[in-house]
Amino acid sequence: MINKICCIGAGFVGGPTMAVLANKCPNLEFNVVDINKEKIEKWNNNNLDELPVYEPGLKDLINKQRNKNLFFSTEITSCISEADMIFISVNTPIKTTGIGAGQASDLKWVESSSRTIAENAKGHTIVVEKSTLPVRTAKVIKDILSFALKNESIDSKKTFSVLSNPEFLAEGTAIEDLTNPDRILIGGEDLAAIETLKKLYLNWIPEEKIVCTNLWSSELSKLTSNAFLAQRISSINSISAICEHTGADIQEVSLAIGLDSRIGDKFLKTGPGFGGSCFKKDILNLVYLCKQFNLNEVAEYWEKVVEMNNWQRKRIYKIIVEKLFGNLSEKKIVILGFAFKANTNDTRESAAIHIATDLLSESASLVFLDPKVNDKQIKEEMNNYISNYTSLKFSELKISFCDDIYEASQDADAIVILTEWDEYKNLNWSNLSKIMRSPPWVFDARGIVNKKNVRNSGINLWMIGDGTIIE
Ligand code: UDX
Ligand code: UDX
């Protein structure tokens, strides 16, 4: 029997996941804790537009459950003490220094969470890995927890079970993915703990969708899922380049191959390369794991998926420079979209960061717009990337922001679409052609605009993977 559940980490995964669980399990209490006080204040904000995560449907859920059976707080130790089950949902970024730098996940937050659990838990506690982790991280968690037990007095009733229950939600559709998942994966050895977690999900998910495996299969399946998805994107992106040289149209090719039920039609959209907090990190994790076992060919195989992704971004930047006569200085370029995909305010690993930096390195003057990412966040992301990974001086770069596309496009030489927001699909191209500097260009890296409308307005169009517009 469990009553109270704690989730460590109130981020893109922890927040929405607990909101759905709280909604589906009204008899249980969910406490989402985080070391970031500002973030917790935002989760508790009465103005639901100020939540730290934007996801369609999230505001409604928070409105329904918050302070009923869903609580957000910084009271980490007391929430852990009272919890029967604890989800670890902290971030696991790529290590930037030391052994495995650039590839291995930094597990310091998972380790510190495990130590805090070891110290503060009471009675029997089921610890669930929700974060995506390198294979065999459950062993680290178990070791930390069992070491703590050795230091406990003999009459202490503290015991732990560790489960892996990876999250498959995609940002932008998180609530829908959590409500109607393709499957739930639970990995573990303790059958009673597995049953307890399974019971939570059975509140709304049919039993046949709940798959139970051993711990390591569960951890590896999560990495493999993301690696396969990313691989499909790199595959279709590689074909987009061939289209542009042959007169083929990538959207027609995607449709044609996707109709083969063995291939399927999902994840075949070409674009400026995958972003987000998971794909690159998880593939590099897999690569690191392979190298540790001397599986160098396997490592190289997966590394290519990331290389192709980097190449796609560079390719787009080079095309923009080439079409604008090889020179961007004194040129104004409007960047439409900064989020790593539509319907989210997440900008981690967004293609926009990389492409915009490359354009700035050519002395372009950039105006940024995004319906859900504010100027402050864009500035921080750009500053962070430019200061850490380039020799450019952020303060010397020409960056500005605007809320209105038409105002931003006044005298602009080009508009570059990097996120597939709905509002960018049907712009008033004939109005834009009148206010842009000649010859005006649109670079559609998502393939979302109506080609005819853009071209009829007199604007030059480059669309990703579209060989048919090359004269
Ligand atoms: C998740 C997963 O957990 C990660 O493994 C996956 O690869 C990406 O998605 P996410 O929810 O997206 O992470 O990360 P983020 O939005 O950064 O949220 C993590 C939260 O954990 C942050 O709010 C951070 O403050 C919090 N945190 C971190 C703690 O509360 N305690 C810690 O010790 C460390
Ligand atoms: C991904 C996985 O889909 C999810 O299961 C896992 O739990 C976390 O990682 P997420 O990164 O949130 O989710 O979004 P996703 O929809 O997978 O998109 C990732 C990136 O790939 C985005 O930049 C998106 O624009 C890009 N993408 C996706 C394409 O370029 N083409 C596609 O066809 C699909």
Helix/strand layout:
Elements: E1 4-8, H1 14-24, E2 29-33, H2 37-43, H3 58-65, E3 70-73, H4 76-82, E4 85-88, H5 108-120, E5 124-129, H6 137-150, E6 159-164, H7 174-179, E7 184-187, H8 191-202, E8 210-213, H9 215-246, H10 250-258, H11 279-292, H12 296-323, E9 332-336, H13 351-361, E10 365-369, H14 375-389, E11 398-401, H15 405-408, E12 414-417, H16 429-435, E13 441-444, H17 451-456, E14 460-463
Parallel strand pairs: 1-2, 1-4, 2-3, 4-5, 5-6, 7-8, 9-10, 9-12, 10-11, 12-13, 13-14
The structure holds uridine-5'-diphosphate-xylopyranose (UDX) (2 copies).
The site of one uridine-5'-diphosphate-xylopyranose (UDX) has 19 residues, from helix 9.
Walkthrough of the structure:
With 471 residues, the protein is an alpha/beta fold. It has 2 domains: 4-213, 3-Layer(aba) Sandwich (Rossmann fold); 279-463, Rossmann fold, CATH 3.40.50.720. 43% of the residues lie in helices and 14% in strands. It contains 17 helices and 14 strands. The chain has helices spanning 14-24, 37-43, 58-65, 76-82, 108-120, 137-150, 174-179, 191-202, 215-246, 250-258, 279-292, 296-323, 351-361, 375-389, 405-408, 429-435, 451-456; strands at 4-8, 29-33, 70-73, 85-88, 124-129, 159-164, 184-187, 210-213, 332-336, 365-369, 398-401, 414-417, 441-444, 460-463. A 6-stranded parallel sheet has the order 3-2-1-4-5-6, with helices on both faces. Strand 4 (85-88), helix 5 and strand 5 (124-129) form a beta-alpha-beta unit. Helix 9 packs across helix 11, helix 11 runs antiparallel to helix 12 and helix 12 (296-323) packs across helix 13. The termini are far apart. The protein binds uridine-5'-diphosphate-xylopyranose (UDX) (2 copies). Residues 8-14, 34-36, 39, 89-92, 109, 112-113, 131-132, 277-278, 281 line the site of one uridine-5'-diphosphate-xylopyranose (UDX).
